[in-house]
Amino acid sequence: MRFGLCCLFLAEKISFRTTTAKVLSAMERKQALDKVSNICLHNSDNLLLAVQAAQRLGIGAFRIMSPLFPRMTHPEVGYRLEDLPQAETISTRLSATRAFSEEHDIRLSFHPDQFVVLSSPHAHVVENSVRELEYHAFLAELVGADVINIHGGGTYGDKPAALARFAEVFKRLPENVATRLSVENDDASYTVTDLLPMCMELGLPLIHDVHHHRCNPDGLDECEATDLAAATWRGREPYVHISSPREGWQGNPKPHSDYIDEADFPQCWLGRTMTVDVEAKAKELAVVRIMQAMNGRL
DNA sequence: GCATGTCAAGTTGTG
DNA sequence: CACAACTTGACATGC
């Protein structure tokens, strides 16, 4: 079992920069490309530092933040890597990240944000979503990430119809996206039970988020959900997600706490081969703490 | 320096 | 009906 860190560090001096479309659009094109080039290089440098820090801390997976190349897909201020003055240095840095990650078996993934909705009835939403997935796949190929994980999206009052739209879009995705895509149960709409038939049909891996499962239960117990989701990975190492509720289980359980409560770690995960992404505000400190708490029982 | 408002994008649930 | 939540802060601006 390996544990994964999501996007950011708390104590380590590793940071990622971003910018906004508004700022870039107020600049001359060349000036904007200079600015974004500096940010992309900074982020590529820090991504290498991130996987090195993960390796040093015994963390076996890292989720890369989506805006590694900020606003790359924006219709007005978007750009290609080769447009950036420092493109070559940036590529070199990403290759180094890939080489380091492969050498030390650090698994890399992406989790595009809520705007990626393949089940939407709106053509422009789906179109933007596919473009966003292509951007993630482009980065994934450069750094050697094997998973791009999204949610089912909205239900629009009819889950089967929404999932049918999802499936149709999936079948048209470019190969570099389709071979990396996974879908995760969420805390409001789609459960493991909802997603499983589509995942089996499409050969699409299902990520079991046990916190979402507890917020949005479907009758499966955690072991059943874990087993069924794991089978969709067809021999690849399954991913699962865990977090603890900030206000405890008696309050609103959805907001994430700083650390993982050991009691929230499913017993039936013990001894399994899988990647456990830790979604906790204390970031690498939370990952290290739960790894130590579970030490000897994995 | 530090506080504050803002930032592309979707959808759902809460007050 | 506005707004927070989602995986989540960081940047730009003005004092």
- What is the count of β-strands? 8
CATH A-level architecture of the domain at 185-298: Alpha-Beta Barrel
- Side-by-side strand order of the widest sheet: 1-2-3-4-5-6-7-8
DSSP strand content: 5-15%
Mean pLDDT: 92
Low-confidence stretches: none
CATH structural class of the domain at 185-298: Alpha Beta
Give me the secondary-structure category. Answer: alpha/beta
What does the main sheet amount to?
8 strands, parallel, barrel
User: Which term fits the overall shape?
Assistant: globular
Task: Determine the CATH superfamily of the domain at 185-298.
Answer: Divalent-metal-dependent TIM barrel enzymes
Distance between termini? 7 Å
> Portion of residues in helices?
40-55%
Order of helices and strands: EHHEHEHEHHEHEHHEEH
Number of helices: 10
The Rg value, from CA coordinates, equals 19 Å
What is the CATH topology classification name of the domain at 185-298? TIM Barrel
Brief overview:
With 298 residues, the protein is α/β, with parallel strands linked by helices.
